[in-house]
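I am sending you the entry underneath: sequence plus fold tokens. Let me know what the token row says about the fold:
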Amino acid sequence: MNDSSAAAERSYDDFYACFDSPLANAIRREVYGRDIGQHSCVLTEELEDDSQLLRLSHSSRLLDLGCGPGGPLCFVMGLTGCRAIGLDLSTEAIASATARARILGLQERITLRVADLDEALDIEARSFDSAISLDVVLHLRDRSQAFGEIARVLVPGGRFLFTDAGVITGAVSNEEIRLRSLHGHTQFVSPGLNERMLASAGLRLLDQVDRTGSLLEVSSRRQAVRLAHRAELESHEGVEGFDRQQLYLETVCALSRRKAVARVMYVAECESATL
């Protein structure tokens, strides 16, 4: 693990250490309406629709790259009955995901591991029917390598569904890039780059959907809800930390409103010839 990855792990560990606190739970309920233990811009309605694209059943194996506290992964498992492995850089996220899986009675069907997604996956080839990665790809240093690893571990015809909230679709200033990159290494890409990298990895693009609307919706709600809980959050984050998060959310909203940075959902299929 490089120094930047270690710093990112510490940052996320700090966040996920309080993920299941009463305050964090209350904020998620106010932001999302239906709290499934999600973070970022995952809406349950979209996740329900997307899970159908993965064609999962009780006999399927699903890989979640960057599973965080396991909310979306456990939700998909509950919908489909599949077995799953979740990987994340943060030990605190994996601890939270482990507790959530136990509460939901999924512990016999799920494996959760700490892993650096910028490195090769310690997983046998052709061992998963589908893979997901929700709002994580933009934090990877080499998505070409990551896509290649995903193609390697998927069975022929296996599907990969991911969201990328860093697709540049308009003019963005250097200050906006700095503010938008608050949560560590962030890689913004031009339209078409993900499509080309998927093809190079042997993953055939089936569909892509602009999900910038959900990014704006969740970020706007989070900004307002955090403001309503300002005193409590400042006690935990500090005044500067609270203001920094609010400015980050304000930047995300501004970029989304003027369609300068998009969040896109992609679903691709592993081609038979990929090794």
